[in-house]
Amino acid sequence: MTSPEPTPDAKTAPPRSPAARAPGAADLVITGCTALVHDEREQIGFVEDATIVVRDGRIATITGGPPDPHAAGPDRPPVPVDLAGAEHIDARGQVAMPGLVNCHTHTPMVTLRGIAEDLPIDEWFNDIVWPIESNLQERDIELGARLACAEMIRGGVTCFADHYFSMDTVAAVTAESGLRANLGQAFFSSQGTEGREQSLDFALRHRDTADGRITTSLAPHAPYTVDDADLAATAALAREHGLLVHLHAAENRDQTDASLARHGRTPIEILAGAGLLDTDLLLAHGTGIVERDLPLLARATGRIGVASAPRGYLKFAWPTTTPVRALRELGIPVGLATDGAASNNSLDVWESMALTALAQKFTEADPRRLTSRQALHHATLQSARAVGLGERIGSLAPGRSADIVLVDLSGPHTQPVHDLAATLVHSARSGDVRTTIVDGRILMRDRELLTLDVPSVVREMNERMPALVDRAHGGRIQRYET
Amino acid sequence: MTSPEPTPDAKTAPPRSPAARAPGAADLVITGCTALVHDEREQIGFVEDATIVVRDGRIATITGGPPDPHAAGPDRPPVPVDLAGAEHIDARGQVAMPGLVNCHTHTPMVTLRGIAEDLPIDEWFNDIVWPIESNLQERDIELGARLACAEMIRGGVTCFADHYFSMDTVAAVTAESGLRANLGQAFFSSQGTEGREQSLDFALRHRDTADGRITTSLAPHAPYTVDDADLAATAALAREHGLLVHLHAAENRDQTDASLARHGRTPIEILAGAGLLDTDLLLAHGTGIVERDLPLLARATGRIGVASAPRGYLKFAWPTTTPVRALRELGIPVGLATDGAASNNSLDVWESMALTALAQKFTEADPRRLTSRQALHHATLQSARAVGLGERIGSLAPGRSADIVLVDLSGPHTQPVHDLAATLVHSARSGDVRTTIVDGRILMRDRELLTLDVPSVVREMNERMPALVDRAHGGRIQRYET
Question: Does A361 lie at the interface with B, CB-CB under 8 angstroms?
């Protein structure tokens, strides 16, 4: 029996407009895509012809098949979803996946992209990068961060962990860009106690700002530039304030060897001695982690994550890469990263995903691992955990933040599709990301950036460049001696 | 003194139309770009605000500054160039460089992209690829070649060396696509003498077809599938007919070890014994070239080139990559390649360029080499030489074929530019190629393919896929046993 009368629901519903929508109304609905999801064992699968409903910045539902606002069931919203006022993206031919996470970068360093090429790391630091960084003005930081955010949004990155200086400025740009980030104000012990105090001050002032998109960390530079007392004090502050600690450690094998020669301890042993393995810790690179470090990492009571940026390790000709297999056996997540563009030449996390798979196959002399699904697990849940956001992002599931990228697979280089995971990891490129969404807000739509203006940034950056790259002063912010 | 009278040239000039242009009239003029050029020592440099004039499919002139049809001088055309009827590309903000060359691929294998993942090479061949290849019909070849050409044009590839079966079909698609290619009909000794005869027949029928864009080679599969007598006969035919020989050899270290165990000779020693090092030879991969091979290669009287496809070596977890340094010391050009998409997952030569730089730094444990300029030398002149076209393509210079790609550097990931060579190799991506030109003909303009229709190819390919990938028959075209 049908009735021409409006239903009670419709009678009482307020007018449909984005500004005044019904309680529970959807903000964004994505239809027709193939959605990358994780099952209860975290195995990666794909939902065909999926509809993703976003409400209040979170994923409300993901269902297979076309949208049906009134259906209910195990895979359906228990409450009818009001789609009428929602923004709609028709994503046929595209894959929806969790936004990528750049687990370790220095955004303002895009300004130095390509300025220190084909050098070993000591010359890279001492002759080029650290001298130039002593010229950096707030405006350089701001322009660099803006360009970096633009690059990441275009490459499907929705969250990044940044470890640099002048982080108030980076925080402001992050807020403006719409991206999610974990930010830490870096410090050296050469700054006295002031560096550590500023790092804490930054972390406390900015935590959970930008509508909760910004989280923060304490950011000692590295065990070779921050002394034991400073590291121990950092660990105490991290525990007291419930903060993540983000630092470089055991970046390469030379650092580990030098640390053993000088202190009789590996960088990881130094962290353990400072109590840092009992804090939540984001450890950048770790290609110098050695066998004797593994028991210490196994006993760690903090949540440890490692960020791997494999392109830079090849470019610096380091002999090892992040020991992903050993870390997996310890249950330590390995997230994907690019490091700064001055070493990596891009903030292309998609490339890091592919290179992680390739570098691990080569290193382990085993073509069977990493599989593409394993690489996607690193790119999603493991990256989210590494930056301390394992409960909020990293998978497309109801309740998670709507940090979503839509990837176009219609190009000739991604066809045909026999194995979608392989297509994503080994055939698709960052440039295939068409749409980038954070907290349900569209930051790029059909390759058009909606929050940042690249040409004006590039214009001003180039005007400022001569003053920035001048090394005639002979100074540098620090000296690299492992 | 100026005169309102038309000049004698203008008086006698025929009407300006593409169909009836003045003798010597330009067909295409590219202005405002930065042009990658080689000096007399083959060092790579860049000409700012360059104008490239194309006439009759060749580069007529490259000059710095805006176009000036009446100027003459060392860097200017000696004869005035008639620009009036020419097609014009305003390429401000873009780099013009020689089109990339894919020095070793199997175009129709794009059909199998992603179907045999994360496997060692023996299982990859015996369990998946060779069984499926026994199902291939001409139409599959045609669709695959078409998709591959589309992918390569979009990735800035203007020439490829293809080594496969049903090459009459590939030749027809090549002609249709507008690309340049060196094509060889592959054969195994298991085919009897017929394979070799067909390879010769193909090479003679198709050489210098498609307005000279198609050159040909003899294409024995490899020393482990083609016996010594067949290799020797191939060498004799190559000398008799002045043909290039294109084959797989010393693909990996296991093959070299197996060859030594079985025959007491390395694959390169087998080629030498067959007389193949005294023919013009394009050798695919060569990661199994060992120290004892080097004197033989040094004594070779043929023009030897090696094609390197480094992504696949990492993916198969091979322990070595192409020995670029050793080959350079012998004066042997190393060109860039992708191999087929069934192993490489794409035909992205741009990625091969970056990975060659990274893999060589890692392998040599020296971050100073390959530099970006060295990588660009491999991508240009060395690749042209490897496929036997060293006099016709590989540099932007008057008289060379107008095989040009225009690369957009306005994206945030390629800014700022401190070192243009580094930007091209390490920051730019194949997707940054906006325009692809072969013999002066525009095959892609502003990312739009002008000679191929991808959606129709993909649609039909997917319809045919179930029959193609069926392995229930239990057959295979060959068995991989090194």
Answer: yes
Give the ranges where A390-451 is alpha helix by DSSP (H): 420-422
What is d(CA B181, CA B225) in angstroms, rounded to the nearest whole number? 25
Torsional sign, CA A369, A372, A376, A379: positive
> What φ, ψ does residue A328 adopt, rounded to 5°?
-60, -40
DSSP H helical segments within A67-192, as ranges? 121-123, 130-133, 138-154, 167-177
Cβ pair B315:A366 closer than 8 A: no
Dihedrals φ, ψ of A113, to 5°? -55, 115
The answer to whether B373 faces chain A, any CB pair under 8 Å, is no
B413–A119 CB contact, under 8 Å: no
Q: Give the strand pairing for B304-308 and B334-336.
A: parallel
Residue pair B183/B171 in contact by the 8 Å Cβ criterion: yes
DSSP state of B322: -
Residue of B nearest to A426 (CA): B345
- Domains of chain B (ranges; CATH) run 19-92 (no CATH), 99-394 (3.20.20.140)
CB atoms within 10 A of CB A127: 15
Q: How many angstroms away from the CA of A372 is the closest CA of chain B?
A: 8
Closest CA to B342 of B112, B61, B69: B112
- Residues 304 through 323 of chain B touching chain A, CB cutoff 8 Å: 311, 313-319
Task: Determine contact, residues A308/A333, Cβ cutoff 8 Å.
Answer: no
More confident residue, B352 or A74: B352
CB pairs under 8 A between A and B: 193
Residue A70: its pLDDT value, please? 56
Across the strands, what pairs with B435? B406
Q: Do A315 and B416 touch (CB under 8 A)?
A: no
Find the CB nearest A361 among B314, B364, B371.
Answer: B314
Asked if A367 and B120 count as a contact pair (C-beta separation under 8 A), the reply is: yes
Q: Within 10 A of B86 (CB to CB), how many other CB atoms are there?
A: 21
Tell me the per-residue pLDDT of A343-359, one tens digit each, with 9 for 90 and over: 999 999 999 999 999 99
Measure CA B129 to chain center.
23
pLDDT band at residue B67 using 50, 70 and 90 as cut-offs: low
> CB distance A317–B364 less than 8 Å?
yes
Would you say B396 and B62 are in contact if contact means Cβ atoms under 8 Å apart? Answer: yes
Which of A365, A432, A454 comes nearest B317 by C-beta? Answer: A365
Tell me the CB-side half-sphere exposure of residue B102, using CA atoms within 13 A. 34
User: DSSP characters for A292-356?
Assistant: GGHHHHHH--S-EEEEE-HHHHHHTT-S----HHHHHHTT--EEE----HHHHSS--HHHHHHHH
Range name among A38-52, A55-69, A186-200, B352-366 with the lowest pLDDT average: A55-69
**H helical segments located in B285-382:** 294-299, 310-315, 324-329, 341-344, 349-364, 372-377
Q: Please give the Cα distance from A360 to B206 (Å, whole number).
A: 43
- β-partners of residue A161 are A182
> To the nearest 10°, the Cα dihedral for B457, B462, B467, B469?
100
- The pLDDT, as a whole number, for residue B16 is 39
Q: Which two tokens stand for residue B118?
A: 């994360």
Contacts of A431 in chain B (CB under 8 A): 429, 431-432
**Cβ–Cβ of B427/A120 closer than 8 Å?**
no
Q: What does the pLDDT average to over B4-22?
A: 42
The rounded distance, in Å, linking the Cα atoms of A53 and A69 is 10
What letter represents residue B261's amino acid? A
Say yes or no for a CB contact (<8 Å) between A423 and B348: no
**Residue B234 token pair:** 């191939």
| Residue A274 DSSP SS3 | coil
Over residues B412-452, the pLDDT tens digits come to 999 999 999 999 999 999 999 999 999 999 999 999 999 99
